[in-house]
Write a structure and sequence with these properties.
The protein is of the alpha+beta class and 192 residues long. The chain is 48% helix and 12% strand. It folds into 2 domains: 2-53, no CATH class; 58-190, Alpha-Beta Plaits, CATH 3.30.70.141. The termini are far apart. Bound molecules: inosine-5'-diphosphate and magnesium ion (MG).
Length: 192
Amino acid sequence: MEINRIIQNKKSSVSHLEPDYPLLTSIRDRKTMFIDYSSIKTYFCKKIDIKSTMSTNRTFTMIKPDAVANGHIGSIINDITNAGFKIIALKYTKLTDETAGQFYAVHAERPFYKDLVSFMSSGPIVAAILEKDNAIEDFRKLIGATNPAEAAEGTIRQKYAKSIDANAVHGSDSDENAEIEGNFFFKADERF
Ligand code: IDP
Ligand code: MG
């Protein structure tokens, strides 16, 4: 009786945890308290997701079709490296309607989505993974506001972009998205 009560109490105290919580599984299956410390450690490391709480110091960028067509690849890469970013991966390529649609799927509900997809697949682009301390924030500062008319003096969009839709460069907005976007273009053996 006593052991049943203890088990019941333990179950309710961990009932908010998922079924793969090792202690709960042990109680249910063995009707005894067996603490597997290694699986508990694994469980909590998984829950905390240590990787996603740490900055990767990486961002992802594209030089968009307008800046490529206007001959700004070299100047933009120069600005990027002069600002202290290291190039980890680099590719000159072209998106299709389909791949541009996938890349910008997060904007699918926005009114400019269709135009954005057709613009981004209208000509070649340069894709790159960049590394620097505080990469996401520093790169967003380097490229300037989405609308070049509002971009600060000296920023890439202020210097090379003509309009909000043809705004010269892309820059990731978070560590998580930088990772997803980099993986969209680059395999592991294309990064150095
Ligand atoms: P960001 O590139 O500065 O992160 P987002 O809001 O993520 O800006 O938008 C993605 C892209 O969609 C922009 O870079 C721009 O090319 C395009 N875009 C954003 N807002 C507008 C708009 O109001 N009209 C047309 N295109 C837009
Ligand atoms: Mg964005």
